[in-house]
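Morning F.,

Quick status update on the modeling queue. The single chain you submitted on Monday has been processed. Sequence for confirmation:
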Amino acid sequence: MSDTTTRPVDHTGGDGAYGDTVVFQTEPESAEAPTDSTAKRGSWSRDLRFMLVVLVAIAALFLAFALVVAFSPDASGIAALAIVAAPIATMVAAYYGISLALRQVAEARRSADAADARARAAETSARESDAWAAQM
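C-alpha cells below.
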C-alpha cells in the first residue's frame, strides 16, 4: 500500500497475542435495542398527543357551534363562529406542522446515526482485512 491509502490502526483494542494487529475487535451491540424501543414509545406518545389536540379542538368547535345554534342562529352568530373556529383550526395545523418537522428531524438524525454506524463497520472490516492480509 502507498502512504496515501494507509489507514490509522487502533492499537488499544488488541490483546497482544497477535502482535500489533487487531484481528476481531467486537463492539457492544446492546446499545441499539433500547434506542428502538424508546423511538417506538416516543412515536406512540407523539401520535396520542396529536390525537388529543385534535379531539380537544373538535370538542371546542362543537361547543362553539352548539352555543351559536342555541342562542343566535343568524349571520352575526355564524360570523362569531368563524372567528372562534379560525384560530382553533390554525393552532391545530401549526401543532401538526411543528410535530411533523420534529419527526423529520428525528428520522434524519436516526438515519445519520445509522450511516455513521455503517461507516464505522466498513472501517472495522477494512482494518480486519488489512490485518488478515498482513498475516498472509
